[in-house]
Write a structure and sequence with these properties.
Layout: H1 2-16, E1 24-33, H2 49-62, E2 69-74, E3 80-87, H3 89-98, H4 109-119, E4 124-129, E5 141-145, E6 151-162, E7 165-175, E8 180-188, E9 193-201, E10 207-212, E11 222-228, E12 238-242, E13 249-253, H5 257-267, E14 273-276, E15 284-286, E16 291-292, E17 306-307, E18 335-340, E19 343-351, E20 354-359, H6 373-387, E21 396-398, E22 403-406, E23 411-417, E24 423-427, E25 433-436, E26 443-451, E27 456-465, E28 479-482, E29 491-495, H7 498-524
Parallel strand pairs: 1-2, 1-4, 4-5, 13-14, 13-15, 16-20, 21-27
Antiparallel strand pairs: 1-29, 2-3, 5-28, 6-7, 7-10, 8-9, 8-11, 11-12, 17-18, 18-19, 19-20, 22-25, 23-24, 23-26, 26-27
């Protein structure tokens, strides 16, 4: 019994950690790792700034005692906590091994704010990257492991489709060093070169390059633009572009010839509009459901015209000088978009995802169709309907670019599969729209839609390219160190010395051994 009591007392001693003198305290090191892809640049000795930053962070951790604490934060558009807060040294080393500089261009302010908040009073906070930032929070140190290297890369890439045809437009930018030449090639998914051009690059002068869109590329098919030749940073030397689906608006006109003529004339100037027969499938019907053109009984007016602010149908419309004939009252189930005096000239109502319009105007008697506002109004109508077509306006987006677009009419939600396999779900609002925040992973993102019955089907692919003119600008990079400040109370946790660890454990082991030795003897007695 006595041995058992002594063993319990030794265990309580080790757990409660009583002491007379002040304990040693664990230091707290906070490392904020700059994680832009710019750290992938290879210097003349064959090393990357990423590898040197990892080596510098590992060396700092090696100076700590076993019981010290480390917090590791990776910068990015959304900073990530890699170890901690207050992780053990071994856990911090493992986090550094798995860390990679794989983020798009970003400022490090948010990561520094996160690191300083997790460090607490007196912790030593250091930013490790390829350059010293222009400003640092008070007390925060920095270690720069980069090199000022001359680079060049793609700053922008687009597949354009308009009245002039389809084109692949690229912008190439060189930073630092002397003028140089690089070859830009356009190739298909199989690596076959479709077009190429030799470029003469002058530092800090953007060069625009336009290729005619290659033939034989199906809608949704891809081409790749690649800069060939030596360059320290290859992260921005290529871009993949998808051929977008045509987004033409089919317009059916069901009006008498006198009214249809000015409508057709205005539509002829809109490249995105295609006039179809009244019986065919159409996105816009002028003269029936869609855009109704009744002639009201209101007297003619010449203004002033009051438009609903912010409505895309009336964007940049100036009706000054128009004699409007045929205005009417607002239908009971519609909202007025354009009025003059007591007369409603344009009104609208929603039916599900569709928008039905009423333009109360006698076109033959009004001067509207002979005024510059008329083609602008028709162009706005086509543009608004085009924006409501399912899918994004362009399937090629830059990293970090937010997207808002409608789903197909039979879909209630969508799932997005990222290049790394991550899956996210997005539910449509009442107008069938989904809003994607800026996508952070370069590569192809597969979008599937889910119908009312829960069935899922593949829909389209979004191509994200990590192109930013700041990414390859390494002029401010270099090697430098700025010491961090540590307050007098810069310890975050108490730690025991070796003797304080061992004595209670030795006592516990001895008393447990004594209890085991005495137990058979008590039983035999």
């Amino acid at each position: 019994l006595w041995f058992e009591l002594l063993a319990a007392l030794a265990a309580a001693w080790w757990l409660s950690d009583p002491h007379l003198a002040d304990r040693e305290r664990a230091a707290h090191l906070v490392l904020v790792m700059g994680s832009s892809r710019a750290l992938q640049a290879v210097s003349a000795d064959g090393k990357t700034a990423e590898a040197q930053a990892r080596q510098a962070a590992t060396a700092l951790i090696a100076t700590l005692a076993r019981d010290d604490r480390v917090t590791v934060v990776a910068s990015g558009p959304a900073p990530r906590l890699l170890a901690g807060p207050g992780a053990r040294v071994a856990a911090a080393r493992a986090a550094l091994t798995a860390w990679h500089a794989d983020q798009p261009w970003h400022e490090v302010d948010e990561a520094l704010a996160l690191g300083t908040s997790l460090g607490g009073p007196g912790a030593r906070t250091l930013l490790i990257g390829d350059r010293l930032p222009a400003r640092l929070p008070p007390g925060v140190g920095a270690v720069a492991c980069g090199a000022a290297l001359p680079t060049s890369g793609l700053a922008d890439a687009r597949w354009l489709s308009d009245a002039s045809g389809e084109r692949v437009a690229l912008r190439v930018l060189a930073h630092g060093g002397e003028p140089r030449t690089r070859r830009l090639v356009l190739r298909d998914g199989g690596g076959v070169v479709l077009a190429e051009r030799e470029l003469s690059l002058v530092p800090d002068q953007a060069l625009a390059v336009v290729f005619a869109a290659p033939t034989g590329i199906a809608v949704g098919g891809a081409v790749e633009a690649v800069l060939l030749g030596p360059d320290p940073l290859i992260a921005d030397d290529s871009a993949r572009l998808l051929r977008p689906a045509p987004r033409t608006v089919r317009v059916a006109i069901d009006l008498p010839d006198a009214q249809a003529k000015p409508v057709r004339a205005a539509l002829a100037a809109v490249a995105e509009a295609v006039v179809v027969e009244p019986g065919q499938s159409a996105h816009v019907r002028i003269g029936g459901p869609g855009l109704h053109l009744p002639a009201g009984e209101a007297p003619p007016v010449i203004g002033p015209f009051l438009a609903r602010a912010g409505d895309p149908l009336l964007a940049d419309i100036d009706l000054t000088g128009v004699l409007w004939s045929g205005g009417g009252g607002t239908p009971a189930d519609e909202e007025a978009l354009l009025i003059a005096g007591d007369a409603t000239l344009l009104s609208a109502r929603r039916q599900g995802r569709d928008r039905w319009l009423t333009l109360a105007c006698s076109l033959p008697q009004s001067t509207l169709t002979r005024h510059p506002a008329w083609p602008a109004l028709v162009a706005n109508l086509v543009a608004a309907r085009r924006a409501a077509l399912p899918g994004p306006a362009d399937a090629n987006v830059l990293i970090g670019q937010a997207l808002r677009f409608p789903l197909p009419a039979d879909a209630l939600s969508a799932t997005l599969s990222a290049p790394d396999g991550g899956l996210s779900s997005w539910r449509a609002d009442a107008q069938g729209m989904i809003e994607l925040p800026g996508l952070r992973q370069p590569g192809a993102h597969a979008l599937a839609v889910i119908g009312a019955g829960g069935e899922s089907r593949a829909w389209l692919t979004l191509q994200v390219n990590d192109l930013d003119p700041r990414l390859a600008d390494l002029a401010a990079c270099g090697t430098a160190t700025r010491a961090a400040e540590t307050g007098a109370d810069g310890q975050v946790e108490r730690s025991r010395g070796a003797l304080a660890h061992l004595l209670p454990l030795i006592a516990l082991a001895l008393t447990a051994l004594g209890a085991w030795w005495s137990f058979p003897r008590e039983g035999s007695a």
